Here is the input.
Amino acid sequence: MKINVCFTDPFTPLKDACQLVVFKNGEAVVPEELSQLFLSSCQRYAQKYQVYLATGLYRDGGYLCMALFAPDGELLGVQRATHLNLSMLEEVSSYDSVDIIPTPIGKVFLAVDVDIYHPEVLRLAVFQECDFIISSQMFPMVDFNEDRIFFGARSAAVANRVFILHTTPFSSALICPPELTSDGSGFLAYPSGREQTVEFDWEDAAILRRVLLDNLLGSNCLSHYRNILEK
Here is the structure.
């Protein structure tokens, strides 16, 4: 399925037609006391522009969260961070579930902050047949470097044969298996601090991902570990 996605700063008026908007994070995670106002504003934005909207990071109920809204304003789902940056350990709790959000444009997994660095989280999302991943990370400018993207979101896209829409406060990128790009880079849209609109078709990676999953499910290694767990 072909999808036009726009990466933009929160609540920026849309210039180009698109189906999906992904907000980049601001300078800080939206605090708990402002979370409901933030979500209400996101809901109105999705309704106004008739788009699916992936929010930036916010705190709610003692968790670090990210949400997805439908064009009619319906809250389709919320994912809470399953892993936490060390600086947040005393401020929020970790969540214990990977929740796939089914939508008319595909099954979506929201990778919250450092979850993008945890292969077991992303592999579980892929085993649950997510079609693409939206990743939102938060860190200060002093910690921003290309390696965070190359060894985080890009490595995850390569390992799981899946499209990843990746944002930080300073950049956005559209990443996929390298063989689907003309230059072999794995970037359909290179990391950029500017607003950008890009088209992608997550079905392009579906066969690659199916082969990966079939090989994993049929591997002797997996059977070995299952036998251990059954004893």
About this structure: The longest strand covers residues 2-8. The mean pLDDT is 89. The radius of gyration is 17 Å.
